[in-house]
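Pipeline run #58 for the internal structure catalog. This entry was flagged by the ingest filter as a single-chain record with no existing model, so it goes straight to prediction. Upstream metadata was stripped on purpose; only the residue string is passed forward. Reviewer on rotation: M.T. Logging verbosity set to normal.
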Amino acid sequence: MTDPLERLIASGAELDREMLATILADLVWIDKDSHEVRFKQKATKLPKKVQILTYLMARKAAKALDLISEEGIVSSELTSKLGMSGGTVRGQLSILGKDRLIDSVGGKYFVPNYAIELVKTLIEKSMGKEK
């Protein structure tokens, strides 16, 4: 007999690729040649913090596809990629970090795998797709 509590054990390194694809399909595409994340029209209408999360999730997908070497991104590069002011990006990153939706290592920000479902819920609420 197996211990029923064993169903609760999962690896923090596991990535739910299906969930990630479902979350991002209507919001972004990844350029086949440059490997740059590009926002679709819907993503540009999202609140700033959700745009940041969407971009970070798309980088997670690009890394999982081996299109980029590193998932994390520094705030100045994020500012440039999203066309937001540095103050806005830094402020939102601070809030997202306190909410445990992002993490950083060596000054590079990313969405940890454990937060994907929380980010999914936030994105859906922002798009009016509460489930």
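catalog note: The mean pLDDT is 92.
catalog note: Strands lie at 28-30, 37-39, 73-74, 103-105, 108-110.
status: ready for reviewer M.T.
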